[in-house]
Every structure is written in C-alpha cells, then in structure tokens.
C-alpha cells in the first residue's frame, strides 16, 4: 500500500517540477525539471529505505507496527522536504541569472 503511495507522490513531484519550469519560462526542457525532481525524490526515498527502514523493520518486525509505519511516512516526508528545498533553490538561481 505505501509503495503505491510513494509512486503517486513521485508522479506528483514530476508534475510539480514540470509546471514550475513552464511557469518560470525556463529555456531548458520542462521534462528535465520533471526528471530531476522525480530523481531527487527517489534518491532520498531509496537512501531512507536502505539506511533506516530496513534496520527498523528487521528490529521491530512483529512487535511495533506503528513504528514501522511512522518510518515509512517519515521517509516520504523527508523526501518531499528535500524536493521542496531543491525546487526553491532552482527558482532562486533562475531569478538571479535573469
């Protein structure tokens, strides 16, 4: 269930970055923005999965399901926060170079 949610969030991030590129009239392809946004999201989610979620799941497999769920959601929230930060930095650099 949560894996499907992560995929939907990645699609939303790609659309968000695509629309941002269109809105600021970036001369680069908006598809580059969309790809980079989705890639940044997935890098953080994969790192979270390997570094945090797998050890937590192994330790609390049958005892604390709410902690495992919180770890899943925490990875998505962390990834969205990083993507939001990257988007704002790109927009600021576009305004500065214009």
Tell the overall outline.
Answer: elongated
Number of domains: 1
Structural class: mainly alpha
Number of strands: 0
Average pLDDT works out at 86
Distance between the termini: 43 Å
Characterize the structure shown.
By secondary structure, the chain is mostly helical. The protein has one domain. Helices cover 87% and strands 0% of the residues. It contains 3 helices and no strands. Helix 1 packs antiparallel against helix 2, helix 1 packs parallel to helix 3 and helix 2 packs antiparallel against helix 3. The protein starts with a helix and ends with a helix.
List the defining traits of the structure above:
98 residues
Care to give the gist of this entry?
The chain is mostly helical. Helices cover about 85% and strands about 0% of the residues.
Helices and strands in order, then pairings?
Blueprint: H1 2-23, H2 30-59, H3 65-97
Helix pairs in contact: 1-2, 1-3, 2-3
């Amino acid at each position: 269930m949560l894996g499907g949610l992560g995929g939907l969030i990645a699609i939303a991030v790609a659309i968000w970055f695509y629309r941002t590129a269109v809105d600021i009239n970036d001369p680069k392809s908006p598809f580059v923005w969309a790809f980079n946004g989705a890639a940044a999201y997935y890098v953080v989610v994969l790192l979270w999965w390997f570094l945090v979620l797998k050890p937590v799941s192994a330790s609390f497999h049958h005892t604390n399901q709410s902690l495992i769920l919180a770890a899943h959601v925490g990875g998505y929230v962390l990834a969205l926060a990083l993507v939001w930060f990257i988007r704002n930095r790109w927009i600021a650099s576009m305004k500065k170079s214009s």
